[in-house]
Specification:
There is one protein chain. The chain is built from three helices and no strands. The chain is mainly α. The chain has one domain.
């Protein structure tokens, strides 16, 4: 049981670190939380697939 609890705590710690890094990046680039949320809401599956296709075409 100790291993399972330790693993969950490690995942929680990684999540906290990810959030802190995201907040620092938002602050560095001068983006507000509302702007970031609006950008995520504006994403669509077709737009994401187009980005992936462009990336694969530029690499290959």
């Amino acid at each position: 049981m100790k291993y399972v609890a330790k693993n969950k705590q490690g995942g929680f710690l990684k999540l906290i670190i990810l959030i802190v890094i995201a907040v620092l990046l938002l602050r560095y680039f001068g983006i507000t939380g509302t702007e970031a949320i609006d950008w995520v809401k504006s994403l669509s599956i077709t737009r994401i697939l187009d980005w992936i296709k462009e990336l694969l075409n530029s690499v290959g």
